[in-house]
Design a protein that fits this description.
679 residues; alpha+beta; 8-stranded parallel β-sheet; 5-stranded mixed β-sheet; 15 helices; 18% helix; calcium; metal-binding; GH; glycosidase; Alpha-amylase
């Protein structure tokens, strides 16, 4: 879907958490050895206390894209151990249950249904219940992790029949009053502020956010989130909600939405709030920063992506946030879920390149970096990876370079920055923070040392690999080794804290996550930095395993998925968690000449179309498809001209909004000679 400071310190349970406040850094213990059956507390080189910034502005945010509440809760130790200060959930509101509740990110289900509100109450079928959300927030508090909730006030689902009566009543008593009058028009001209803030965007009905009763209802939702433990909010499509001086409909209301939701929510002064204000045309970003507190810096993300992929990290490109004279109250990113999904970033940029960009934006002084965690085992060949809503994303969020630069950022709070191209080579950039630390990102060939630096004289170890030494003397940085291509070097001593390596669990890279119906799959399990890795298959008792062992996976009778839960602890008792889901898959082929029939309802038009697609095509661009042949009154036929692998078919009468189609969601399996009727 395209388009705060947290100063208040909640009381932490002494039995579960120890906190030591030092300067602007908070050290919190997520899990002690005694809680995990071990009294060994003798190590002087490692610690389970993780440093987090004292407020979200100074730290980093992990976007847990489509992770459910229980997965986030179980992954909290991993999140803390990776140096994040906050996490951001996907929208937690009641939402459209599309495609019969299918739970694929894309296919039999869609990630974007949680961006289609049906009510503003906590809990939905994709992420979990209100109680599960609260339990997740409670777990986050134990680890000192703040929780940001992605919220949507601008629109509802286009399936308006699913909108709750409570929301309709809050919107004035009818769908007509819930939405803007201009909602009848599609937004095409983003330079027109009245259109931008009152027209229907992307087919999503535009809520009349100026209506006082709606604002009251929405504030109740925000307060419930805060009561459960939320520490801030991200406002989706924020630039489509009017500012105080924007033009508006003549309906007796005023553009005071932002004033109310920012100031009248409980604990308002201590919440971190930012709006998704995608830059482009007349977006008024400085005014949104003033109204909301923070906004996104989408143009900067685009510039960083281009700099990394083109190996051109010039000082000018890296340093300019592209916000003009706007205050630097911004959330930065290398990519967002919109870039990844809608802009094709998944095949334009590798995960390794994303991590290089992350090192650049996170080493900097200003902005609050947001790490979008891509789907589990996705790649430039496979956008969706395991393709499952609810599970955690790819392990890239806890990559050693990501961890190192996250903790670097926390240690550098308050230090000025200096950006240089070492050896005047723009394929690499060094971001220095005072004389205390530096991050070097090299995108191309091996980089020779011997260049100038502001770092204080001394010996430094690269905190990414933990072994390569660098020496600074008389303003020169040298090492016996070159800086490798496509690598990150993190150098600092003051504020560095050594942590025990986290345990690692997972499945082999060649794992196939779809199982043919009635068959089994042999899955190779992996683990590292642990002596107690375990797996639980389909909720059964946990079983110990060693790296490289295999397990046979089959989908239980009456279900369409099999689930592997993998857990382990490192020598300090810090847990890691991963949930791997295998889904049944129907595979079949049809030959050219296959013919199917459809009997249309009397209410449909006389032109009937067949829309055919498969997993490779996803949704083709020829809706409504191919016109069918009329065989007799009410009966039509379609003949396949080509061979197809596992095609699906949707019948429709060409209506652009898709209201006259069968089925309403996922297409039907093709059977030669079959006559399809609406059941």
């Amino acid at each position: 879907m395209k388009d705060g400071d947290y100063l208040f310190k909640r009381i932490l349970s002494g039995l579960l958490v120890s906190a030591m406040l030092t300067g602007s850094v908070v050290y919190l213990t997520g899990c002690s050895n005694s809680q995990n059956g071990s009294d060994d507390n003798t190590s002087t080189n490692t610690s389970t206390e993780y440093a987090h910034a004292d407020k979200i502005d100074n730290g980093t945010i992990l976007q847990c894209f489509s992770w459910d509440f229980n997965t986030i809760k179980e992954s909290m130790a991993d999140i803390a151990a990776s140096g994040y200060t906050a996490l951001q959930t996907s929208p937690i509101n009641a939402c459209l249950e599309g495609e019969n509740g299918g739970m694929q990110l894309y296919g039999d289900g869609k990630w974007y249904y949680h961006y289609q509100p049906t009510d503003f109450k906590i809990g939905n079928y994709q992420l979990g219940t209100r109680d599960e959300f609260k339990a997740m927030c409670d777990e986050a508090e134990k680890y000192g992790i703040k929780v940001i909730v992605d919220v949507i006030a601008n629109h509802t689902t286009p399936t308006t029949s699913a909108v709750s009566q409570d929301l309709i009543d809050a919107g004035g008593g009818s769908l007509d009053t819930l939405y803007h009058k201009n909602n009848a028009y599609d937004l095409n001209d983003f330079s027109n502020r009245l259109a931008c803030t009152t027209y229907k965007m992307g087919g999503l009905p535009d809520i009349n956010t100026e209506r006082t009763s709606f604002q009251d209802y929405f504030i109740e939702y925000l307060n419930d989130c805060v009561a459960c433990g939320a520490d801030g909010f991200r406002y989706d499509t924020a630039k489509h909600i009017g500012l105080p001086d924007d033009p508006k409909e003549d309906d007796g209301f005023t553009n005071n939405f932002w004033q109310r939701v920012i100031t009248e929510v409980n604990n308002a002064d201590n919440l971190f709030i930012y709006g998704e204000v995608l830059q482009g045309n007349n977006e008024r970003i400085a005014d949104y920063i003033e109204a909301i507190g923070h906004t996104t810096a989408s143009t900067y993300g685009s510039k960083i992506r281009g700099a990394i992929t083109n190996n051109t990290l010039s000082k000018g490109t890296v340093s300019d946030y592209w916000l003009g004279d706007a205050p630097l109250n911004m959330v930065t990113w290398v990519e967002s879920h919109d870039n990844y999904i809608n802009d094709g970033n998944w095949y334009n940029m590798t995960k390794e390149q994303v991590i290089l960009g992350w090192a650049v934006i996170t080493a900097r002084k200003d902005g609050t970096p947001l790490f979008f965690d891509r789907p589990y085992y996705s790649s430039v060949e496979n956008e969706w990876g395991m393709n499952r809503i609810g599970t955690e994303g790819d392990d890239m969020y806890k990559d050693k370079s990501v961890k190192a630069v996250n903790f670097f950022r926390t240690a550098m709070i308050g230090e000025d920055e200096n950006i240089v191209n070492p050896n005047s080579d723009s394929t690499a950039v060094m971001i220095e923070r005072g004389t205390k630390g530096a991050v070097i990102v090299n995108t191309k060939d091996a980089l020779k040392t011997g260049f100038e630096t502001n770092l204080a004289d001394g010996t430094y170890v690269n905190r990414v690999d933990g072994k390569t030494e660098y020496t600074v003397k008389n303003g020169k940085l040298t090492s016996d080794a070159d800086i490798p291509a496509n690598s990150v070097v993190v150098l600092y001593n003051d504020g560095y804290k050594e942590y025990e390596a986290a345990a690692e669990v997972g499945v082999a890279e060649d794992t196939v996550f779809n199982i043919q119906s009635g068959r089994t799959a042999t899955v190779t399990l992996t683990c590292a930095n642990t002596d107690n890795a375990e797996y639980a298959l389909n909720g059964a008792a946990a079983v110990s395993y060693k790296n490289g062992e295999t397990v046979t996976v089959s989908v239980p009778s009456g279900s369409d998925i099999a689930t592997l839960e993998l857990t382990a602890k490192n020598s300090k008792g810090v847990k890691t968690y991963e949930r791997v889901v295998f889904a049944t898959e129907v595979k079949y082929s049809i030959s050219s000449g296959t013919k199917v029939y459809f009997e249309k309802p009397d209410s449909w038009g006389d032109q009937i179309f067949a829309y055919v697609y498969n997993d490779e095509l996803y949704e083709n661009e020829t809706w409504p498809g191919i016109e069918m042949t009329k065989e007799s009154d009410g009966k039509y036929s379609y003949t396949f001209e080509d061979d197809w692998e596992t095609p699906y078919i949707i019948f429709n009468d060409g209506d652009e909004d898709g209201s006259q189609q069968y089925p309403a969601d996922k297409g039907l399996i093709v059977e030669d000679g079959k006559t399809y009727t609406i059941e």
